[in-house]
Amino acid sequence: xxxxxxxxRVRRDARTYxxxxxxxxxxVLVVGGGGRxxxxxxxxxxxxxxxxxxxxxxxxxxxxxxxxxxxxxEDVKGLRNFAVENKIDLVVVGPEAPLCLGLVDELKKVxxxxxxxxxAAAEIEGSKLYARELCRRHRIPGPQYWPFxxxxxxxxxxxxxxxxxxxxxxxxxxxxKGVTVCKKNDEARAAAVDCLERRxxxxxxxxxxxxxxxxxxxxxxxxxxxxxxxxxxxxARDHKAVFDGxxxxxxxxxxxxxxxxxxxxxxxxxxxxxxxxxxxxxxxxNRKYQGFLYAGLMLTAQGPRVLEYNCRxxxxxxxxxxxxxxSDIVPLLLATVDGRLDEQQAPKWDPRPCVSVVACSGGYPxxxxxxxxxxxxxxVTSGPDLQVxxxxxxxxxxxxxxxxxxxxxxxxxxxxxxxxxxxxxxALQLIEFDGIHFRKDIGMRA
Length: 446
Ligand SMILES: Nc1ncnc2c1ncn2[C@@H]1O[C@H](COP(=O)(O)OP(=O)(O)O)[C@@H](O)[C@H]1O
Ligand SMILES: [Mg+2]
Known about the structure:
The chain has 446 residues and is an alpha+beta fold. The chain has helices spanning 35-45, 62-65, 76-85, 96-101, 103-109, 119-126, 128-137, 151-160, 185-196, 264-284, 318-324, 330-338, 417-430, and strands spanning 26-32, 50-57, 67-68, 90-93, 114-115, 145-148, 166-170, 179-182, 208-212, 217-225, 230-232, 237-238, 241-243, 247-250, 255-258, 291-300, 303-310, 354-360, 373-374, 386-390, 393-396, 399-402, 406-413.
């Protein structure tokens, strides 16, 4: 295989970029309504370039730093019309669903700048099978895999296979619930039937991918790229399992910590063997990737391996990451859309560690009640190094109520991780709602 010309490079040197926009004039629309979007609105609203921030649909937290717009994140037409009518200069898409629906492409048609990958590029997350095939075609290291779209084939494959650990994945978007890590073939058979026959995830599970089970430490690397230049963000680690000690079922994410100590040799391996090759691979497949590229990795004894890609920032990793980002994020976002990241100054990070602890509704990730009033938010003294980022919240009368499983993420920096943790948990002591639960061990492994 001929290797592609290496245009891309890591931007780490500092060069002052003079933006033509000098007065606060940029109107931004953030799409989404979770903790990631609250953190994005919070950070974007601090930019001296920005005149106004909207958030669609937002939550009770985004309402404090932006103007909520009553439009669903997946209402592509509605968002397009809003952006045109309100002369939005930059749309920033938080979640994967609107990206996979082609929101960026639709906005491009009406000349609205939109941060995030195109529909074709977002398939890197939207189809786990596409991501696997991309890796195979371009020799990006990942597990062995075997796709199936009929249950007979899947069964026959498992019958022939030696019994042992294997991973079953619904190929499409399944809100973080489509993956089953199995110890035995029997479990895998049940998971395959669930997807292919019972259609547990609807169309998203009409194709499944069996994957070789990989062992090692997991790491998420989020990179800003315009398809040429990459700017890796500081590494972060999330906590997926609902209970302390990584016990219990997986959730959307119970907490995160940044930075994570990664040896520079490993980071270089990740950039050279995974991030750059992926950006190039997307160019070669005519799916130029612009936006945040999130690589979910397993650090195996043989080196880093791709578990999955996401086409956006992680939630809750975004919350502590953006708190530590001291540079203005808006020029970075604009430069990504315009394909001139190479002109950007490398972002600066507060060296202090940051921890984010997610408080959830009683019963989550199973059944939970909504509309539960939240008390004590006003007792928390927030500032640049402590914030309560809202996820599933809304305003009702004078109250703030719960509207989702993950309700809010208390995020704090500290002089060390222990201090950051202590500040998070002290603030959580002040917040109350019926059924509240959160992990007590976020950041303890760091
Ligand atoms: N091939 C694999 N080997 C071992 N564990 C895996 C593998 N693929 C996924 N996992 C585990 O399952 C989790 C979820 O899988 P992932 O591919 O990240 O899907 P999603 O985030 O969409 O649920 C991963 O964080 C990891 O813990
Ligand atoms: Mg994942």
